[in-house]
Amino acid sequence: xxxEKKHPDQKGKVITFYSYKGxxxxxxxLANVATQLALWGYRVLCLDWDLEAPGLIEYFRDEIxxxxxxxxxxxxxxxxxxxxxxxxxxxxxxxxxxxxxxxHRADSGICGSVDIIHAGQDAxxxxxxxxVRELDWDVLYTxxxxxxxxDSIKREWQGSYDFIxxxxxxxxxxxxxxxTVQLPDILALVxxxxxxxxxxxxxxxTRAVTNHSKFPLSEGKLLTVPIVSRLDQRDETxxxxxxxxxxxxxxxxxxxxxxxRDVPISxxxxxxxxxxxxxxxxxxxxxxxxERGSDTEQISYSLKSISGLLTAGIKDSANYVxxxxxxxxxxxxxxxxxxxxxxxxxxxxxxxxxxxxxxxSYAVELHETGENLDDAEILYxxxxxxxxxxxxxxxxxxxxxxxxxxxxxRAEELYERSLKEDPKHANRLSNFAVFLESRRQxxxRAEELYExxxxxxxxxxxxxxNFAVFLKVHRQxxxRAEELYExxxxxxSKHPNNLGNxxxxxxxxxxxxxRAEELYERxxxxxxxxxxxxxxFAGFLFSQGRREEGLKYLERSKNLCEDDDLLVELKLYEFGxxxxxxxxxxxxxxxxxxxxxxRTEWDFSRQIAQIVRxxxxxxxxxxxxxxxxxxxxxxxxxxxxxEVIEAREKT
Length: 651
Description:
Strand order of the largest sheet: 3-4-2-5-1-6-7-8
Helix content: 55-70%
Shape: globular
Structural class: alpha/beta
Radius of gyration: 29 Å
Largest sheet: 8 strands, mixed
């Protein structure tokens, strides 16, 4: 399916995708951007110049009908034909093009074509490696005037394509120099939130812009567009925001050539970042063909934003940040109106059955396993559309939206609808109570729902435990909380959350250390990977003066920790109870975490009392650290301590 240029009178743009470090998702982003541009009707050429680690073609392998096309020559063969013109390797770049038709799975009317020149035949096999070793850039440039030949080829590409996307070698090398200086009009700089990645990108980009301006065959300024990849903003919100601020400040010089003065860098980063979503970390995939991309939680939403930025957004950034959806529509994006797309044939089959019950049941199965969440959402939506008054899909979808989509407004609406249809369902009453407690801080209504749920099912161990936590934290009704904990364990003596939470209650409020230790051990027997119980047990052991045991459980908890509040607790324990030789490093790590804004409500009084008993001279620093960790004092209150000054100097 050959296509013509969308804008035949304009020279095609050459965009090099470069990363200083490997493993940042550069090829993944390029392949998906290329595919999106093709779906918008642009003529696109991709070239794999990462000769030492080729693999761009793998993203398109499933879309290639004629696998014989993979035997075509590649970039390395073209380079060698210029290096050795007297051999029979001579060929044109057109001979190396592999044409790939791409079709969106949701709508056969959304399709396009991507042309690819892969790295070379048999990459990365033995013969390919030998061909790479033959390549000599000095010979190419000094003996064969390759700079002028490559410039001529570039002009041919620009005449034939709207966009030419180049997958560049990482690091600093001859190949990356060609790809970042001579060839591109735009340098898309893919980086992760890491110091090496950030510093390396800035240095390479600065040199590339300077050298591009001096290169005799260059036309116009080299535009540099940072793209932040593998950013986890779902679970690590505070850290992500900290790094985005750091990236905006460090890379400010790279935006000056194109970003409108009224658009903050922090704002444009919203359109040039790719979230980390574990589903897409396996294999080589094109989610741009599989997802609707209308949900901001989907990776395809971000990939489409980057595609729009590199086309229309870079020309008028102020308009793009204000009217992103309208701009994408103008570019030809009709996917938002497409039919549902499913990851599995079974989900598709169940959807087509038109049975609301089957759809709701399978959506719950997908929801509970955490797999194929897009499929689950589509099935929930359709089930409710077919049967809008059935309470169970309403309640289950509300829980899904709360936990996975963070769409609290709609979740609350669905909770209300489900309870209107069935006001006595204990589990949904409990789920809504937890929602109101944790998401809305509506404690009066939450307590009312807890009481109603308990009236309907007084033997529900999970409900009893949740209500006990609520009474302890928000009502300080310790006697009733203890009563409910006891009832919960009578109903289910192996419930790990109730065991661990009751142990913490007994430690902090009843000082019943003997029973608390027994319950911690039972909780960890039932769930040995529960990071919160591991961390709480470590704190308990520290308060008992049992440092070695405490450090063992602390290390296990750190390795499993995904909770910001717990992370602060663990790092404070680590500094407080580690041997003197490792304390400066532990303090440095704690300060790094506090710098990102993380805080905890945990009470450290018992642990600090134990530290002070053994080392009285540490009392002022430990109590100040605890106050900062609890949010009771500002971070600046630590500035005068010599230990803090020393730790701050560590790299």
